[in-house]
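Continuing the series of single-chain predictions for the mutant panel. This is the parent chain; the variants come on the following pages.
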Amino acid sequence: MTAEATPSLVEATDGPAQAGPSVRGPRARTTTAYLRYVAGKLGGAAVSLLAVLVTSFFLFRLIPGDPVKYMTGGRQVSAEQLAHYREEFGLDLPLWQQFTDYCGKALTGDLGTSYQFRAPVIDKISEALPNTLLLTGTAFVLYTALGIFIGTRSAWRSGRASDRLNTGLALTLYSIPSFWLGLLLIIVFSVGMGPIPGLFPTGGMESGGKEGFSYVLDVAHHLILPVVTLVAVEYGQTLLVTRSALLDEMGSDYLTTARAKGLRDDLVRRRHAVPNALLPTVTLIFINLGRTVAGVILVETVFSWPGLGGLFYQALSVPDLPLVQGLFFVFASAVIVMNTLADLIYPLLDPRVGR
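Parent structure:
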């Protein structure tokens, strides 16, 4: 073959190398697909937040009760005074105007003024948020670690007595209502039953009058029963999801190859099986992480824990509409944001996602 007959080959050989679409195309397409995936997820999250904003306004308007009468403390007041309260809190405006005012202020971070506390809703949320994060955050770390650890071992020993025991216990505890378990723990370990003395406080976050390290120990003492309640009820879900995902991975060919090369079972599980089976567990972890902001309303109410859950129950009984709406929006937003973060992390764990 002569050079004259093949000028294109000569040019391709002698000339500078050109990076054509066959070289950079796949990477560019992958980046574009991921950006489109991210934009779709962020757009979906924005729509969800808007839906929550609308729902939080109209849903709690269906609650029976007159917040203005609650603000008067049941006293006999004149019609002029009732009208003054309604005007002060904007309850005399048409519903559509109340809604537009609420949305406009919420977008700037103003969630209104609490009827019962006469304070900005955002301030009440900021006061209670650290207490909720202390309780639910501690429980989250414990039940996530416990669920993943026992779930992986149960899957690796599937069918054995330990697996049946762990799975049965997880299903039993997961099906128990958290408030019922909390009340049971209070009766047994706070009030005392038979030979078991009352070892823990019945509720609250502190006994009062303590400072420094004694205060830390006092808070930790009050923290034990509500944390145990949350861990006992919640760890089973993580265990079952982790176990199921790992069982699906255990029949894969790459695990058989790893064993054939002489790798120990413990090494195969830690380095190969578990990382590839964690995608469903990551979803659950991020959803639960969003719930740490919301707290657990029933558990905080049972143990009189001064967090967002207890504040929501207190506001709902009035009804304190601005406080209820603000808390509901914060709860739902936390879950939506964490779920969106999980979606954005998926492609880093599994490159097939988002293509």
